[in-house]
Amino acid sequence: MAGIKLSAVKKTYPGSSEPAVKGVDLDIQDGEFVVLVGPSGCGKSTLLRMIAGLETISAGEIVIGDKVVNTMEPAERDIAMVFQNYALYPHMSVRQNLSYGLKNRKMARSEIDRRIEETAAILQIGDYLERKPRALSGGQRQRVAMGRAIVRDPAAFLFDEPLSNLDAKLRLHMRGEIKHLHNRLRTTSVYVTHDQLEAMTLADRLVVLNNGLIEQVGRPLDLYQKPASTFVAGFLGAPAMNLMEAEVAEGALMLGGAALAGGLQARPGRVTAGIRPEAIRLRAEPGNFRLDYVEELGGTRIVHGHIGAQRMIAQTDLATELSDEMTAELPGAELHFFHAETGQRL
């Protein structure tokens, strides 16, 4: 196993004036599971491919273990990659798919067999070893793809949106399997996804990327509870944080001339204020909240409405009585404040 360090890493594609990755610094500890998350085009897959050696870097340095790997070929970097499209050989059995890379490395037959049996036991694919990929389900194929990575016993695993081709139920199951696998192997892992729920579930540390730059790095719950910017606040969470252009005056949060919360310690002036949907308290008595529609999710409700012209989303339990006109309380302790122009946390 090995740590991974990125120093001022940049990537500019030929013919483009705008870098895809704009100088990323990141230190991934040995045995850590780090998830790169962000919207399409943020640079997360490009960053992963540069670590793997599938993309050249335009500037900066990448270190895996104690080796600078900038100019190394992918096969020399001691990493194993898992892709979203499985990348299995259709004409080979599962056993042959698992052993192929090891045979190319001239590994002894006994060691190959040992690794295959051990990996098959970990992933519970022992019954499929003589089958061809076409005889497997999507989840089974993804296990085999992970098995190809595991048998190599690499310094690090790189996952490029490995679950994106699976249906929602199978994705949930495979997330649990990947988490369990990491807890067992403790191999350094870098995982790319656009799914913030997947990212929150899997990560020891989360790296939120936006437009080729790191917005914030930290434990998932820390980022959720204390986002560094309106981008992170709006990206993490389902539903996302409510963000509103407002003003703090005389210790109160003012929106459209009405006070939404009082007793605030925030500095007076224009702000972007945020509050998580689950932090809003709805009461059935007539007040400032107008109901638009409700999403019934079984154990919870997502309540869509507005306060004045501001759209708001609240999350409540089934015991909360709903009506067309309600009162929404925004507890001051649950409010987040961001600079009105830069979007950075105040």
UniProtKB/TrEMBL annotation:
It comes from Pseudooceanicola antarcticus. One of its GO terms (biological process) is carbohydrate transport. The keyword Nucleotide-binding applies. Residues 4-236 form the ABC transporter domain. It comes from the Bacteria. This is Carbohydrate ABC transporter ATP-binding protein, CUT1 family. InterPro entries: AAA+_ATPase (IPR003593), ABC_transporter-like_ATP-bd (IPR003439), ABC_transporter-like_CS (IPR017871), ABC_transpr_MalK-like (IPR015855), ABC_transpr_MalK/UgpC-like (IPR047641), Mo/tungstate-bd_C_term_dom (IPR008995), NA-bd_OB-fold (IPR012340), OB_MalK-like (IPR040582). The lineage of its organism: Bacteria, Pseudomonadati, Pseudomonadota, Alphaproteobacteria, Rhodobacterales. NCBIfam families: PRK11650.1. One of its GO terms (molecular function) is ABC-type transporter activity. Keywords: ATP-binding, Cell inner membrane, Cell membrane, Membrane, Nucleotide-binding, Sugar transport, Translocase, Transport. GO terms for cellular component: ATP-binding cassette (ABC) transporter complex, substrate-binding subunit-containing. Belongs to the ABC transporter superfamily.
